[in-house]
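Q: Given only this backbone (196 positions), what sequence would you predict?
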């Protein structure tokens, strides 16, 4: 055990072992995030037998875990290689590593990848909205979030009104219920208690 501890704590092995640990952390984190989500979604919204539901949960967890582990490995490997080639980390290295890893790991259009990419997209848009304030590039307004929220809602409402087919089906259904179904009723019953 002492020799293993000595090996893994040797600074000469750190960069390569960080890639290995990144793979491990990606696999564990992907499973921790996806398993409860898939379990809840399966039992709340999926039809089918218990075996089919559990198979869905297992497959979704496996895919999320594998994809996250693979992405972390590609990203950390490319960061390591770029540092070795150039001599030190440059500003654009993380973008290049993320771009390549994102293309190869999350480029397949499936439900799991869509959810992950949309989650990350939403978070980076909020981050970009905060960036001018964080960098003190803008004095006014102090908080860019209201502008960001206004633009997001303006765009989604315009898309729903004029090109709704480009929106995800679940968003279309929600917006149909909220904005169009609320225009129609014939009785007090379907005005107050039932939608239609």
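A: Predicted residues:
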């Amino acid at each position: 055990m002492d020799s293993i501890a000595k090996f893994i704590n040797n600074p000469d092995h750190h960069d390569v072992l960080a890639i290995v640990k990144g793979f491990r952390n990606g696999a564990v984190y992907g499973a921790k995030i996806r398993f409860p989500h898939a379990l809840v979604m399966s039992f709340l919204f999926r039809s089918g037998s218990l075996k089919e539901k559990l198979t869905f949960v297992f497959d979704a967890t496996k895919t999320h875990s594998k994809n996250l582990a693979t992405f972390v490995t590609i990203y950390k490997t490319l960061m390591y290689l770029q540092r070795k080639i150039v001599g030190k980390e440059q500003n654009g290295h993380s973008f290049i590593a993320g771009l390549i890893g994102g293309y190869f790991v999350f480029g397949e259009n499936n439900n799991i990848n869509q959810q992950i990419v949309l989650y990350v997209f939403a978070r980076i848009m909020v981050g970009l909205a905060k960036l001018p304030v964080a960098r003190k590039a803008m004095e006014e307004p102090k908080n860019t979030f209201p502008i960001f929220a206004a633009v997001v809602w303006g765009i989604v409402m315009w898309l729903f009104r004029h090109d709704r087919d480009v929106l995800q089906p679940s968003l279309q259904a929600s917006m149909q219920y909220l904005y169009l179904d609320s225009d129609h009723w014939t009785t007090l019953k379907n005005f107050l208690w039932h939608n239609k």
